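Thread: Newbie trying to understand structure tokens

Hi all, I'm a second-year student working on a class project, and my supervisor (Dr. K.) asked me to get a predicted structure for one chain before our next meeting. I've only ever worked with sequences, so writing a 3D structure as a token string is new to me. If someone could post the tokens and maybe explain what I'm looking at, I'd be very grateful. Here's the chain:
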Amino acid sequence: EESMNTVLAQECVRFNRLIRTVRKSLADIRKAIVGLVVMSQELEGIYDAMMIGKVPATWASVSYPSLKPLGSYVKDLIARLSFLQTWIDHGKPATYWISGFFFTQAFLTGVRQNFARKYTIAIDLLVYNFTVTDTESDDCSSIDTPPDDGCYIYGLYLEGTRWDREAKMLGESYPKQLYDTLPVMLLEPVESAKRVIPPHYPTPVYKTTERKGVLATTGHSSNYVMQVDLASDMAPSHWINRGAALLCSLDD
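---
Reply by user tm_fold:
Sure, no problem. This is what the structure looks like when written as tokens:
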């Protein structure tokens, strides 16, 4: 529980920095329009970006990765802040919106850390078991009890493949359907030596459809999140040829 509190505090710091940047730039633009301050090159860039529905570079420099247009970006930002506010007001949620985190790797480490403390196991010996449930992401609120170990996550999208609800494994995408929403998934830490892996496809998880990023000083990519092993009766090369991957957010 302490690990999750640390994750929440760190998320609040990052989002507060973004909110301060957005508020200050909007206030400065209003002053510049009425002539109270000089319209600097930076302010002009923000204004021009907003006029064409694009996220200003000043915001993007302190923001989480996103390829959404301005309207969708603001809507997404409000949803993320609402998720954190609910967490603050009502305590740890039963399900976590994994796409709503600024720094997803910190959350994933926090889940493993809780498990390591509970069972007194070295954290570097732990990996994840992935179990896709029958609950759709839109119905995640129906889950009101967290699991004994690990956590439920939602908010991931499949590209290049789909989740076959009947066979409970990856299947071919439907015609003219680019993305499929992955149902709620259970992340359960387990000792790597005790892990039993059925036939699967090691699905990479990316924050955006761009699928590329830069390495931070922490050694983490700004876009790649982790690898999720999803059940499959096809060889991994089959899904690699289709570019199958999981995405935290879409471009719309």
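A couple of things are worth pointing out once you decode it. DSSP finds six helices and eleven strands in the chain. The mean pLDDT is 91. Feel free to ask follow-ups in this thread.
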